[in-house]
Amino acid sequence: MTQDELLAAIQSLVSGRLDILRRKQHDYAQGDDAFSNFRTVAAVAGVSVQQCFVVWLATKVVRLGQLISNGKYPQNESIRDTLIDIANYAELFYVWLGTEKNNPSA
Question: Is 19 contained in some domain?
């Protein structure tokens, strides 16, 4: 693979991830608050939104490890789907932390 091919593949991947994020925001976010679902889960669980992000990321990383090591073919969420979710959760967490009200030291 050439560098140009690599960059084109990543550009296509990012575009696809953004489409998935748009669809999930439509399904999960309420009103104008893009993080409403994260706030609700944090309130129900009695933890911070940051802790929710860490748990979701950890869950996906554990799933990835299981998919790779158990030799089973996934019936529902593929390894690629799991990697997309990890990337999207990481970027959402990054944006969450980047707002002054969520992380004054950011």
Answer: yes
